[in-house]
Specification:
By secondary structure, the protein is α+β, with helices and mostly antiparallel strands. It is built from two helices and four strands, in the order αββββα.
Length: 136
């Protein structure tokens, strides 16, 4: 394959990976206040995408999503004795999601997605220019 095809396939793999990052961050934000229904039930646990460098079919180096892992950091606790999931001391376990961290991760994934898209656009422009030169 040509270098331009390898560039496009590497950028496309990056775009797919960043899409997964954005989806997982959005799921984390959506569940940031999802406490358990009773004191014995754990709240939502934050997920982290697992990305891995790989060699693509084109021969280029790219990135592949290998799944998502659970963030095993401690849950937040809030005093709310009227909540159905409150323990005997009145504390409710809340998800270990920090919406500010998730929003920053979404912003970073968006910027990386845009950078990969710009690489594809640049490769397309170079191909178009090369074809124009060959027509002359």
């Amino acid at each position: 394959m040509t270098d331009i095809n390898q560039t496009i396939s590497a950028a496309a793999s990056g775009m797919r990976a960043q899409t997964v990052r954005m989806r997982i961050a959005a799921e984390n934000v959506a569940n940031a206040s999802s406490a358990g229904a009773n004191p014995n039930e754990d709240p939502f646990r934050r997920r982290i995408p697992l990305l891995e460098s790989t060699t693509l079919a084109s021969g280029a180096q790219g990135v592949e999503v290998r799944g998502a892992a659970f963030d095993m950091s401690a849950f937040r606790e809030e005093y709310n004795p009227s909540h159905p999931a409150a323990d005997p001391n009145g504390y409710v376990q809340l998800p270990n999601v920090d919406t500010l961290v998730e929003m920053m991760d979404m912003r970073e994934a968006t910027r990386a997605y845009e950078a990969n898209l710009n690489m594809i656009e640049a490769a397309r422009t170079m191909t178009t220019r090369a074809l124009d030169l060959l027509r002359r």
